[in-house]
Write a structure and sequence with these properties.
Strand order of the largest sheet of chain A: 1-2-3
CATH class of the largest domain in chain B: Alpha Beta
CATH topology of the largest domain in chain B: Alpha-Beta Plaits
Shape of chain A: globular
Number of domains of chain B: 2
Largest sheet of chain A: 3 strands, antiparallel
Strand order of the largest sheet of chain B: 2-3-5
CATH class of chain A: Mainly Alpha
Radius of gyration of chain B: 26 Å
Number of domains of chain A: 1
Distance between the termini of chain B: 67 Å
Structural class of chain B: alpha+beta
CATH architecture of the largest domain in chain B: 2-Layer Sandwich
Number of helices of chain A: 16
Helix content of chain A: 40-55%
Oligomer: heterodimer
Order of helices and strands of chain A: HEEEHHHHHEEHHHHHHEEEHHHH
Radius of gyration of chain A: 22 Å
CATH superfamily of chain A: Cytochrome-c3 Hydrogenase, chain B
Number of helices of chain B: 4
Strand content of chain B: 15-25%
Number of strands of chain B: 5
Largest interface: A-B, 45 and 38 residues
Strand content of chain A: 5-15%
Structural class of chain A: alpha+beta
CATH architecture of chain A: Orthogonal Bundle
Largest sheet of chain B: 3 strands, antiparallel
Helix content of chain B: 10-25%
Order of helices and strands of chain B: HEHEEHEEH
CATH topology of chain A: Cytochrome-c3 Hydrogenase, chain B
Chain lengths: 391, 179
């Protein structure tokens, strides 16, 4: 046996031990261990939460992830650039189009190509539609976790209008696969902009409804106000991003702060923050985010420039040697791709930074000392998508 | 906290009541109630929602246009297209010319059990042989029946809708579906 194979053996043993360690750590001490998931209805998908309890209080709580790991970073090494697009759609499956954009932007950066203005605007419109589809479901789903069923149905109903608009352009409700290096696959069909503006008006009504139905509700407020407070410095040190960070009072939005060439700087909108940092403020910030997104879509639809939607790129795409990092403000937070190219048809290595992975890493800190039902409200308000954690 | 406890609850109940009246009386309170007209859902097997013309439902094959170039099979991310072909001699175009060599399609199968519906094959096809159809009702009790051969894929060709015109300001040419 050589030294390398010993090391491999050790890695294998370590990997197996890591599985069992969580159980051992929690069960050998005094107190009670509560397992939520991987198949618990109160978790989104297959996240496992192991909580050590003292009576009704949580002493320590640990998220165990990896049950849905699909090895995307490795899979992308054996795919060509157009094929990568179809795979990364499946990372955050509620706002799929937003997953494609950073990867395409990183590839364009390496190739030195820039999409024409009309393509940039359409990308931004679809990006914001993906955000609305994603977060409007959160607005209903969080209320469902607090025991309110109605809001979930309203959210599913009104999200469907957004998905219909996405389908009318891209052909896919959930997996658009619409972004291409150098532009877009297709242009808007006739009459789409008028329909979209009607849908945006409806979504603003939906936000008002949610404000009356959920935000103003005393039970919801009692379940979320002052629960799961994350101060701004803790949020930053854990690498939180997106609405979770803005709810802690940190004014930080990649759409405004780091321009990547999309059309957000062309319209007038606000980044909302909340000073409290509790579950309620995370919900409230996301509600405002949907409102702002509908405004962005409206403004961009009005001022859509005419022109081509595809820059000049070769038919067979070969990306020159180099490395590029592009991150955008996705519905869940900062999502970025670090693409390393060796000049082949496909990427040599891709590192995917997804928001949910960092967002749930704060769970052990924030759930210390809370009561068991509050764990659910904290998990729901942190808002993660399992495909985004495990990818 | 609100000034009167329970005010938020009543407001929420008001929202649900408004939604209920919208569902039962979609044309206002004067008309007779209709239990399904204002509903957001449809009774699926009896009534159907029309999918968007661009919806990626099923791939249709125009067999005459296929030249067995294998581009679609090579660019498929999960390799679910199976193509076999052979070369044939065809009569020359002009009298006195040499006989032409044409490729004939023996087998063109798409395994919809594997297909990711990404549409790369349709996009890379240089000869307009593949098209999207928004049809979606082709589920099978046996998974092996989801492998559609070239006759079945050819039948989908009738359901392919025409390409839509584009929104104002677009410079993309509207393509035509060969019939």
């Amino acid at each position: 046996m050589t030294a390398i194979s010993d090391r491999q053996k050790l890695a294998y043993v370590n990997a197996q031990a890591a599985d069992g360690r969580v159980n051992l750590e929690f069960e050998t001490e005094e107190g009670m261990t509560l397992n939520m998931g991987p198949q618990h209805p109160a978790t989104h998908g297959t996240l496992r939460i192991v909580a050590k309890l003292d009576g009704e209080q949580v002493i320590h709580c640990e998220p165990v992830m990896g049950y849905m790991h699909r090895g995307y970073e490795k899979l992308l090494e054996v795919r060509t650039y157009p094929q990568v697009n179809t795979l990364v759609n499946r990372i955050d499956w509620l706002g799929s189009f937003t997953n494609e954009v950073p990867f395409i932007l990183a590839s364009e950066k390496l190739m030195g190509v820039e999409a024409p203005p009309r393509a940039q605007w359409i990308r931004t419109i679809l990006f914001e539609l993906g955000r609305i589809a994603n977060i409007s479901l959160f607005l209903g789903d969080t209320a469902l976790h607090m025991g309110g069923m109605t809001a979930a149905f309203y959210a599913f109903r009104d999200r469907e209008f957004v998905l219909n608009q996405i389908e009318a352009v891209t052909g896919g409700r959930f997996h658009p696969n619409f972004d291409r290096i150098g532009g877009l696959k297709d242009d808007f069909p006739k009459g789409w902009i008028a329909d979209t503006k009607a849908v945006m008006a409806r979504l603003r009504d939906f936000c008002d409804e949610i404000e009356d139905l959920v935000v103003g509700n005393e039970i919801f407020q009692a379940r979320t106000r002052g629960i799961g407070i994350i101060p701004g410095d803790i949020a930053q040190s854990y690498g939180l991003s997106g609405a979770n960070l803005r709810a802690s009072g940190v004014d930080w939005d990649l759409r405004r702060d780091v321009p990547v060439g999309l059309a957000w700087d062309q319209c007038d909108w606000t980044v909302w923050t909340h000073p409290d940092g509790d579950s309620f403020s995370r919900y409230w910030v996301r509600l405002q985010e949907v409102r702002e997104a509908t405004k962005i879509v409206d403004q961009l639809c009005d001022g859509l420039p005419s022109g081509p939607i595809m820059a000049k790129v070769p038919r067979i795409i070969k990306v020159p040697e180099g490395e590029a990092w592009v991150a955008t403000e996705n519905p869940l937070g900062e999502m970025g791709y670090y693409v390393v190219s060796k000049g082949d048809l496909g990427p040599f290595r891709v590192k995917i930074r997804t928001a949910s992975f960092n967002n749930i890493s704060v769970i052990p800190w924030v759930t210390r000392g809370v009561y068991v039902p509050d764990v659910i409200s904290i998990l729901a308000s942190l808002y993660f998508i399992l495909g985004d954690i495990d990818r | 906290m609100p000034d009167i406890y329970g005010k938020g609850l009543l407001k929420g109940l008001g929202v649900t009541f408004r939604e209920m009246t919208k569902t039962i009386f979609p044309d206002g309170m004067t008309k007779r109630p209709s239990p399904t007209k204002g509903a957001a859902t449809v009774q699926y097997p009896h009534e159907k929602e029309a999918p968007a013309p661009r919806a990626r439902g099923v791939i249709a094959l125009k067999e005459d246009n296929c030249t067995v170039c294998m581009l679609c099979a090579r660019s498929c991310p999960d390799w679910c297209i199976y193509i076999e072909g052979h070369e044939e001699k065809a009569p020359p175009r002009r009298p006195g010319g040499k006989p032409r060599t044409v490729s004939a399609l023996d087998r063109f199968d798409i395994d919809y059990a594997l297909c990711m519906y990404c549409g790369i094959c349709v996009e890379v096809c240089p000869f307009d042989a593949l098209f999207w159809s928004p049809e979606y009702e082709y589920s099978e009790p046996r998974i092996a029946d989801l492998l559609h051969d070239k006759t079945r894929l050819g039948e989908w060709m009738e359901t392919v809708p025409d390409f839509e015109p584009y929104e104002a300001g677009s410079e993309v040419k509207v393509r035509k579906v060969p019939r």
